[in-house]
Amino acid sequence: MKRILVIDDAATVRLYHREILEKAGFMVDEAINGLEALEKLEQAPFDLYLVDVNMPKLDGYGFLRALRQLDVPQVPAIMISTESSASDRHTALVAGANLYILKPIKPEQLLAHVQGLLGEWQD
Predict the structure, then answer these.
(1) β-strand 3-7 against 77-81: which pairing, if any?
(2) Alpha carbon of 63 to those of 21, 32, 112: distances in Å?
(3) How confident is the model at residue 123 (pLDDT cuts 50, 70, 90)?
(4) Is 14 exposed, middle or buried (0-12, 13-18, 19+ CB in 10 A)?
(5) How many CB atoms lie within 10 A of CB 71?
(6) How far apart are CA 89 and CA 86, in angstroms?
(7) Cβ neighbours of residue 111 under 8 Å, at least 6 residues apart?
(8) From CA 61, how far away is CA 93, in angstroms rounded?
């Protein structure tokens, strides 16, 4: 079963993403910021990261830059944000995001992106 780490400082957003992903058969863990996420990936590897931009202590950009420098399996990361400028998208991709999408995202859109990046297309 594929493991996904949802990184967002808003509990309601983490719960929303968790429910969508668990219903689709994924194992989901949560982190409230980039520092907690880095600690969690030391314990066990993940197959995909859902990352918010604006978080305390270590934001999404900082998390992705740190993640991409670690000697761990490099798996897809989706940055999900309310920040909609081209520069935000560019910064996310340069930091290591595979995809940049805007909040709020519909459940079927989130699943399509996650399954596509994990190579698990559903009919």
Answers:
(1) unpaired
(2) 21, 12, 24
(3) very low
(4) buried
(5) 5
(6) 5
(7) 20, 21, 24, 122
(8) 9
Secondary element (H or E) of residue 72: none
76-92 exposure pattern, b = at least 16 Cβ within 10 A, e = fewer: bbbbbbebeeeebbebb
Cβ count within 10 A of residue 108: 9
CA atoms 99, 105, 107, 108: torsion sign: negative
Tens of pLDDT along 64-114?
A: 999 999 999 999 999 999 988 999 999 999 999 999 999 999 999 999 999
Residue 48, amino acid: L
Q: What is the pTM of this model?
A: 0.94
Cβ(47)–Cβ(3) under 8 Å? yes
Place of tokens 């990184």: 7
Tell me how far apart the alpha carbons of residues 21 and 14 are, in angstroms, rounded to a whole number: 11
Kindly state the tokens that stand for 108.
């079927």
